[in-house]
Specification:
Elements lengths: L1 H24 L5 H4 L19 E3 L5 E7 L4 H16 L4 E7 L8 H13 L4 H10 L6 H10 L4 H10 L3 H13 L7 E4 L2 E4 L4 H14 L1
Helix pairs in contact: 1-7, 3-9, 4-5
Length: 216
Amino acid sequence: MKHLWLSFLVIGGLAFLVVIIFFYQSRPINLEMYFEQTEVEAIEQPTVTFVNPSKGAEEATVTFIVFSDFDCTACKQLANSLDIVLSAYPDSVRIVWKDMPQESMDGIATAAAIAAHCAQKQNRFWEYHDALFTRQSYLSEDQFLQIATDLGMDSERFTSCYATQDTLAIVTRDYEEGLGLNLIAAPTLFLNGESHVGAISTQDLLTVVQQSLTQH
């Protein structure tokens, strides 16, 4: 019996090692190149479904839909501003995340989005989102599993998800929608049907919320 359990442990260890190796060898596609030769249908407004991470009031007066990128400095600034606004109006504001990775030479943007949605499968998207932005200056694939471990997530489940790119379809769907909306940059924020490009200041966002609440 002892040898039987030892065999199971060895087999399990080897299986996990294979997943780890695949984790570091798998490279997400570059979505910009993927859609370069693809005709995308034009749309006027973004959609929000259950697969899109959101936080804040369920019955919100103001909903911010942000197309963003974890490898983008302006996106990090906007995320910080939105958190301040949400803290100021927790019962009135909702934030919805959409992926719009703008690939640089290192190709980390799409990879980070896939990893974040793997965290979402364990209901840890927003903590993972914050950690990615915190480590943005030295973000790499090595950090993805480390963040999951630091957050106390199921590392084996996360590794398997990332290695098989289970969440790529979510990222691709958002990116295609961004192209359909004719977005030219990340971040792009949608509010009341209007799009706003760039890192809008915290004060401007607070003013928008205050005006919306006054109108209601």
